[in-house]
Write a structure and sequence with these properties.
The radius of gyration is 27 Å and the shape is elongated. The protein is mostly helical. The chain is built from 5 helices and 2 strands; from the N terminus they run ββααααα. A two-stranded antiparallel sheet has the order 1-2. α1 runs parallel beside α4 and α1 runs antiparallel to α5.
């Protein structure tokens, strides 16, 4: 037995298996509108603001400024800042990552010295490191998408621009 509206006069009843539903306009879904479009095959995406087209090479350099800190600390964003400083997109991300790296180094130095006097103070640099790692992933995801997300000033001290 087929489900659906009864056939109109002069129309043949649905002739298919019992499990198959009739095809018709009542079963069509409205067309879906896409919220975003994937960048062209060339790997560039339109950057909102003043960055213009962001190439996949620039995205990679910006991404490595963040991800490289897990391996070599503040050296990775410094290399990206000096190496690809002509690109405003890479420069902005590398400067922010370098600011986070320098802030982490300073907090570890001061926190390490303070923990010699009061052992409980070692939790300050450890907590700050956890926050920095969260924002490294946050910034890296934005760089990989071709966007820029600002990290709060207490985490990335605004030293470089």
């Amino acid at each position: 037995m087929a489900y659906g509206p009864p056939p109109s006069p002069g129309q043949q009843p649905h002739q298919g298996p019992a499990w198959q539903q009739p095809q018709g306009p009542q079963w069509q879904q409205p067309p879906q509108q896409q919220q975003w479009q994937q960048p062209p095959h060339g790997g560039t995406a339109q950057m909102p603001g003043h960055f213009g087209q962001v190439s996949s090479d620039d995205k990679t350099w910006a991404l490595m400024a963040y991800v490289g800190q897990f391996l070599v600390g503040a050296i990775a964003p410094a290399v990206a800042f000096v190496g690809k400083g002509r690109s405003p997109f890479v420069r902005k991300h590398a400067a922010q990552a370098l600011d986070m790296g320098i802030a982490a180094i300073v907090v570890w130095l001061v926190g390490g010295l303070l923990s010699l006097a009061v052992e409980v103070m070692i939790w300050i640099p450890l907590g700050f490191t956890a926050v920095v790692m969260f924002y490294l992933v946050y910034g890296a995801r934005a760089a990989n998408r071709g966007e820029f997300r600002r990290v709060p000033a207490p985490v990335a001290w605004p030293i470089f621009k």
